[in-house]
Design a protein that fits this description.
The complex is a heterodimer of chains A (89) and B (416). Chain A is mainly beta and 89 residues long. Chain A is built from 1 helix and 6 strands. In chain A, a hairpin with a 5-residue loop joins strand 5 and strand 6. Chain B folds into 2 domains: 219 residues, FAD/NAD(P)-binding domain (3-Layer(bba) Sandwich), CATH 3.50.50.60; 155 residues, D-Amino Acid Oxidase, Chain A, domain 2. In chain B, a hairpin with a 4-residue loop joins strand 14 and strand 15. The chains are: A mainly beta (89), B alpha/beta (416). Chain B: One of its GO terms (biological process) is tetrahydrofolate metabolic process.
Chain lengths: 89, 416
C-alpha cells in the first residue's frame, strides 16, 4: 500500500501511523450529554466493510495528518486530503 | 459414529469403507430454540455446551461459508492461560482446563499438545513485569515459573542468546500451555454437537434479523427465514457487520492479522516461544513446519490478506529472536480478520436488543479461548446471566470504566 500524501506525494505505507476512523466527530465538551457522547466517540465504531475514511499521520515524512478514503475489502485507496479538508465527492 | 482404537482397527481391516460423515449437513428448519450465528470454533463450542450442559437440543448453527472457514482455520494454534488481570485470568484458566479434557469429552482427536509456552524477557524491567504476571497467575491457581537464561538455553538452545541489543535473560514458563490442531477443534465440536442433535447449517448467510416489538425473534438468511427464541452471534471479524443489522454499533474494529508457516524441518522448537523485544510467536507443528506470527497490519481491513511491510517486520523479529530461522524457507502466509476491541479484551454479554447475545472482540486471542468462550456464552444464553469467570467481559464496561486493558494502551484497537 502507498498513500498519496497531499504534501509529499506517493509514499510507502511504512512512513505513516494509523489512527482510525475519521468520521467520528469530537463532541462539544460543554454540550448536553457530553459524557455519553464522548464515551461513544472514543469507543464505538461503524467499522464498515467497504469505503472507510480514516486518519493517518505522516510520521516519517512531513508530519501532516491526512484523511484517507480507502476500501477495507480491497485496501484500495480512493483519495487523500489533509485532515483539515473534506474529501471531495 | 463413535471414534475409538477399536473403530480405527475395524475400518483398517475393511479398507476404511465404513466411515460416515462426522456431522450432518443440515437444512434449516423453520424455528429453533437457539440460533448461533457463525460456524467457527466459538459458535460450534457454544452450540455443543448449550446441548450438553444446559439440556437444549433444538439448536442451529448457521454459517455463511463452510464450517470452520474463518479464524479457527487461520490462527497459530496456541493455547495458554498466562494473563495478568483478574477479569481475564480466571476465564482463560477455565478454557485451559476444558482443553485438557477436550478430546475425551468430544470423542475427537484435536491433537492438544501441552508442550509449554515460554515468554522471553530481555531486561530487568521485563523480568519484573513477568514476575508480576507469574504471581498473578499463581494467585488464580495457575502454574507458572520464572526461568533464568540457562534454563531457557537448555530448553530451546537455538535462540539468539547473545544478541547485542536484546540478550535473552530468561522467560516466563507455563508448562500446561501448548498447541492444538485448529481445524480438528472445529471438526471435533461439530462432531460432538451433531451427536447431540444440533443442526449445523452451512452456506447460509444471515442477511438480517427478524424483530417483533424490538425483540429479535429470528434471522433472515440466504436460505430463508429462521425463527428462534434467542440468537447468539459469534462471528469474530464480522461482528460489526452482523451487529449493524440489529442497529448496534460495537466498540470493535476489524483488523487483518497475518500468520506464516515454513517448510518442514527436524524438531527444533519444542514449545511455544514468544519474543519479548518484538511481537513474534512461534511453535513447530507435528509435520515439522514452523508456525509463527506477529503484529497486526494495523489498519481496518476485511480483506483476509495483508501487506508485505508487515511480513518483513514479522520476519525481522523472528530473525532477531532465532537467527537460524533465516535458513528456513517460508511456505505460506495468510490473513484472518480480528475483531479488535477497544481495550484488547473480549465481550460475552447480552446486547441492548432483547433476544440477541454477543460473543466477540476476541482480538488475537480467540483460538485459545474456544472452549471457554463456548462454555460461558452457552451459560449466558441458557440462563440469561453471565458465567462467573466471564462476568467482567461486559459490553457496557467502556461506559462504566471497568475496562480490561491487559497492556494499558488505551482505546486504540490496533495497539492491543
Amino acid at each position: 500500500m502507498r498513500i498519496d500524501c497531499p504534501h509529499c506525494g506517493s509514499r510507502d505505507i511504512q512512513e505513516f501511523v494509523y489512527r482510525g476512523d475519521a468520521s467520528v466527530p469530537r463532541p462539544d465538551p460543554d454540550g448536553e450529554d457530553a459524557l455519553a457522547r464522548f464515551i461513544k466517540a472514543v469507543h464505538l465504531r461503524a467499522n464498515p466493510a467497504g469505503r472507510h475514511v480514516e486518519h493517518w499521520y505522516h510520521a516519517g515524512g512531513c508530519r501532516a495528518w491526512v484523511k484517507v478514503e480507502r476500501d477495507t475489502l480491497t485496501h484500495e485507496i480512493e483519495s487523500t486530503v489533509f485532515a483539515s479538508e473534506e474529501i471531495g465527492r | 459414529m463413535r471414534y475409538s482404537a477399536f473403530s480405527l482397527f475395524r475400518e483398517a481391516l475393511r479398507k476404511h469403507r465404513g466411515w460416515t460423515p462426522t456431522w450432518r449437513d443440515a437444512a434449516p428448519k423453520s424455528s429453533y430454540d437457539v440460533i448461533i450465528i457463525g460456524g467457527g470454533g466459538h459458535g460450534l463450542a457454544t452450540a455443543y455446551y448449550l446441548a450438553k450442559e444446559h439440556g437444549l437440543t433444538n439448536i442451529a448453527v448457521v454459517e455463511k461459508g463452510w464450517l470452520g472457514s474463518g479464524n479457527i482455520g487461520r490462527n497459530t494454534t496456541i493455547i495458554r492461560s498466562n494473563y495478568l488481570l483478574p477479569g481475564n485470568e480466571a476465564f482463560y484458566e477455565l478454557s485451559m482446563k476444558l482443553w485438557e479434557g477436550l478430546e475425551q469429552d468430544l470423542n475427537y482427536n484435536a491433537m492438544v499438545s501441552q508442550r509449554g509456552v515460554l515468554n522471553l524477557f530481555h531486561s530487568d524491567a521485563q523480568r519484573d513485569a513477568y514476575a508480576r504476571r507469574a504471581n498473578s497467575m499463581r494467585l488464580h491457581g495457575v502454574d507458572s515459573a520464572l526461568l533464568d537464561a540457562d534454563a531457557v538455553r537448555r530448553m530451546v538452545p537455538i535462540l539468539g542468546f547473545e544478541d547485542a541489543r536484546f540478550p535473552i535473560k530468561g522467560g516466563l514458563w507455563q508448562a500446561r500451555g501448548g498447541t492444538a490442531r485448529h481445524d480438528a477443534v472445529a471438526w471435533g465440536y461439530a462432531h460432538a454437537a451433531d451427536q447431540r442433535g444440533v443442526d449445523i447449517i452451512q452456506n447460509c448467510q444471515v442477511t438480517g434479523f427478524l424483530r417483533e416489538g424490538g425483540r429479535v425473534v429470528g434471522v433472515e438468511t440466504s436460505r430463508g427465514q429462521i425463527r428462534a427464541r434467542k440468537v447468539g452471534m459469534s462471528v469474530a471479524g464480522s461482528s460489526s457487520r452482523v451487529a449493524a443489522m440489529a442497529d448496534l454499533r460495537l466498540p470493535i474494529e476489524s483488523h487483518v492479522l497475518q500468520a506464516f508457516v515454513s517448510e518442514g524441518i527436524k524438531p527444533k522448537v519444542p514449545c511455544v516461544v514468544t519474543y519479548g523485544a518484538g511481537h513474534f510467536y512461534i511453535s513447530q507443528s507435528d509435520k515439522g513446519g514452523l508456525v509463527f506470527g506477529g503484529d497486526l497490519d494495523g489498519y481496518n481491513s476485511y480483506a483476509q490478506r495483508g501487506n508485505l511491510p508487515t511480513v518483513e517486520h514479522v520476519l525481522e523479529s523472528g530473525m532477531s529472536m532465532m537467527p537460524s530461522i533465516g535458513r528456513v524457507r517460508m511456505l505460506r502466509s495468510w490473513g484472518g480478520i480480528m475483531d479488535m476491541s477497544m481495550d484488547g479484551s473480549p465481550i460475552i454479554d447480552k446486547t441492548p436488543v432483547e433476544g440477541l447475545y454477543l460473543n466477540g472482540g476476541w482480538c488475537y486471542g480467540g483460538f485459545k479461548a474456544t472452549p471457554g468462550a463456548g462454555w460461558c456464552f452457552a451459560h449466558l444464553i441458557a440462563r440469561d446471566e453471565p458465567h462467573p469467570t466471564a462476568a467482567a467481559m461486559r459490553l457496557d464496561r467502556f461506559a462504566t470504566g471497568h475496562i480490561l486493558n491487559e497492556n494499558g494502551r488505551g482505546a486504540q484497537p490496533n495497539l492491543h
